[in-house]
Amino acid sequence: MAAAAAELCSVSVAACLLLACGYVGSLYVWRSPLPRDHPTVIKRRFTSVLIVSALSPLGLWIWREYTGNKTGPSLLSLMGFRLEGALAAASLPLLLTMVLFFGPLIQLCMDLPWGFVDGVKVLIDVRFWVQCVTDMRWLRNQVVAPLTEELVFRACMLPMLVPCTGLNRAIFTCPLFFGVAHFHHVIELLKFRQGTVSVFF
Questions:
Q1: How far is 111 from 107, CA to CA, in rounded Å?
Q2: Residues assigned a catalytic role
Q3: Contact assessment for residue 33 and residue 129, using Cβ atoms and an 8 Å cutoff
């Protein structure tokens, strides 16, 4: 029994590492001397990350077949996509995020050179949103990166870790893969001489 649990854990951790390495590795498939904020680099990385994100559920399915862990009626429900409890699943994290960021949002509003009403006018202005949607960096930071990261690092990794570590430990273990996957930013900053090693540690 202990040997089977150890094998499940090693397979789960290896699969999570493979997903994390695949996600980060896809960013560097296209060799380029250009910085990460260049539109050409962003477009290429969009392509790579979207392909890896589309293949990640396949990785979860392979893990599920290999381990024989048939929890949930379907792969989508295993990943957390289901109608049951959808309202709570959508509203409670939003409420929690609003509470956690209430202080910084109030501070931002107080620090703005224009008033609250003027800020709201900017937010409902169509030109503001057109400018955002046409900016590749905004799309990367606000749309593509969060969606693909949630799919790979939460929807695909958590189901692999829960049978191994349990739900509570998996909640704290999964962000470790996410954090390690972001270490490539340090290497990129050093590559373009935007910082030193001592700054990061």
A1: 6
A2: 149, 182
A3: no
pTM over 0.85: no
Q: Are 170 and 162 in contact (CB under 8 A)?
A: yes
Tell me the CB-side half-sphere exposure of residue 177, using CA atoms within 13 A: 27
| Residue 179 burial class via C-beta count within 10 angstroms: exposed 0-12, middle 13-18, buried 19 and up | exposed
Give the C-alpha separation, 161 to 11, whole Å: 10
At position 51, the amino acid (one-letter code) is I
The C-alpha atoms of residue 110 and residue 105 are separated, in whole angstroms, by 9
Residue type, position 83, single letter: L
* CA–CA gap between residue 104 and residue 47 (Å, rounded): 33
Residue for token digits 């990129």? Answer: 188
Contact between 13 and 164 under an 8 Å Cβ cutoff? The reply is yes
pLDDT, one tens digit per residue, over 84-133 is: 888 998 899 889 888 888 888 777 777 777 776 777 787 788 998 899 89
Q: Which residue has the tokens 């209430």?
A: 102
The secondary structure of residue 34, as a DSSP letter, is: S
C-alpha angle 61-10-48 in degrees, rounded to nearest 5: 50
Tokens standing for 68?
Answer: 């024989």
Distances (CA, A) of 78 to 75, 119, 130, 168, 182: 5, 41, 36, 17, 26
pLDDT in tens, 111-124: 777 776 777 787 78
